[in-house]
Amino acid sequence: MKKYILMAALGATVCLSACKKEFLQQNNPNAVTVENYFKTENDVSLAVNGAYQALRSSNTIGENSGLFTDERSDDTGRNDNQSNAGEPFQFNDFSVLPSNSFLKTHWLALYNSIARSNVILSNIDKVSFSNPATKANYIAEAKFLRAIMYFELVRKWGPVPLVTKQLVTTEEVTAATFRAPEAEVYNQIVADLKDGLSSTLPNFQPTAGIGRASKAAINAYLGKVYLTMAATLTNNQAENLANANTCLLAAYNMKTFGNLSEIPYVDVFDVNKKTTCKELIFQIANKQGDVNYSSSIAANNQAKGETINSLKVSTGIGGNVTLDLINEYEASDLRKDFSVKYANDPIVKDWFITKFRDASSLATANGYGGNDWILMRYADVILMLAEVNMLQGNDAAAIQYLDMVRTRAGMPNYALSKTNAAYAAAFPTLKLAILHERRVEFAFEHQRWFDLIRNFTATELAAYLKAKPQSSFGIAKLANVTTKDRFFPIPFDEVKLDPVKMYQNPGY
């Protein structure tokens, strides 16, 4: 009789998988095994939709997953009197333990998402398609989603188990329970993304397809992957930078607007313009007013006594912002006034996040917002092109890209800004100027931590963070930062499975 198997070693539950009888004593009459499920094109379509659904989770890369990114960085954190008693505080305090249950849940959720893609890719050949292009596009989408999740894993943990097929038996799980080298994981990510470029996916999805993969999204992610490889791997830096430039230019040349300044910054986050904003490349689509598929980020970020984000009444501090970030905004930067606000409530007196708003009646007093969660947009592509050109020694081109973003924000160009003593002192190099621009442009979009680990070695990162004034960081202790914090610890339960093959990261 067909059963299920828990792939604990890989942090993923394959919901349609089979295993030996002793794992389950009773048969579920409603269960559908993999070998019996994939029969029609619609079955594949539903499975692909399920793979996309995994993106929404706060335990993968959804809008509320900032615990694993922004709260790890110098932008946000837990700064209330009770926060230092719980596991979430460990992320911003640089005291994450291998036993942290939030970290384990994140690992499990990422591998569960990968398992969904693997199930599709391992069984799609069982189905006959009337149009071969339809099958190729489903394969491209499954590989795109798998690549995104592995990109999250390899940047956060380094070497990780690499699985590219559905695992059915305990023997297969055991054989796959080992940490593959970073380069091998990156090569798989690149291969998965490249395969999508040979499909018939559109450059951009139509309105009905928003939230699905496109060639612009694939090129943009490929560019970011190559850029990260160039910065973090020891070999082939020049080749990876050249590939990054090629892919990012391909994405850039697909844009359907002229200059970035044609798109007001506030329009990027306007709930009413999310289907027409030409800057957006890839996003998780949400439904305003829908209890199951709405966005909660506007309400979650709102501080007590405030109404700017949502009609939902807040009783807490909302989305906390470090003073370190507040102090980095330049004078007259319109992104500051849109992104953050100071709450002046008798109980809450602090900066909170206002970048994601939906205070309309359609979102209701329950805070069922319509914000889509943006995963890739053109300002990111442009600033990555600036970073790539800077690393290639082409400062003139890098500055041109940097100025595109600064101009849209109403800021002076880089050449003029350098004559400002405060700007020149804060960002003495082009590298730091680009990193600064990314920080204020993408604040709270879960980019900051990845920008830091891409731009600094472990030693440099620890020094960079420790150089910040503790008074601008909050109650999380900057003194805790060491080189170990470049990576998360491997969850304790995973190391227990095989302490040799699932070895712990240094320092934990």
Key features of this structure:
two-stranded antiparallel ribbon, two-stranded antiparallel sheet, 508 residues, single chain
Question: Would you write up a description of this structure?
Answer:
This protein has 508 residues and is mostly helical. It is 44% helix and 5% strand. It contains 21 helices and 6 strands. It has helices at residues 34-37, 41-53, 89-92, 101-123, 132-157, 170-176, 182-197, 215-232, 237-252, 265-268, 297-301, 323-328, 334-339, 378-391, 395-408, 414-417, 421-426, 430-441, 448-455, 458-466, 492-497; strands at residues 5-7, 12-14, 280-284, 340-344, 349-353, 373-377. The strands form 3 sheets. A two-stranded antiparallel sheet has the order 1-2. A two-stranded antiparallel sheet has the order 3-6. Strands 4-5 form a two-stranded antiparallel sheet. α5 packs antiparallel against α7 (182-197) and α14 (378-391) packs antiparallel against α18. Mean pLDDT is 93; it is low at 1-26.
Task: Describe the structure concisely.
This protein is mainly alpha-helical.
Question: How is this fold's topology laid out?
Answer:
Blueprint: E1 5-7, E2 12-14, H1 34-37, H2 41-53, H3 89-92, H4 101-123, H5 132-157, H6 170-176, H7 182-197, H8 215-232, H9 237-252, H10 265-268, E3 280-284, H11 297-301, H12 323-328, H13 334-339, E4 340-344, E5 349-353, E6 373-377, H14 378-391, H15 395-408, H16 414-417, H17 421-426, H18 430-441, H19 448-455, H20 458-466, H21 492-497
Antiparallel strand pairs: 1-2, 3-6, 4-5
Helix pairs in contact: 2-4, 2-5, 4-5, 5-7, 7-8, 8-9, 8-14, 9-14, 14-15, 14-18, 15-18, 18-19
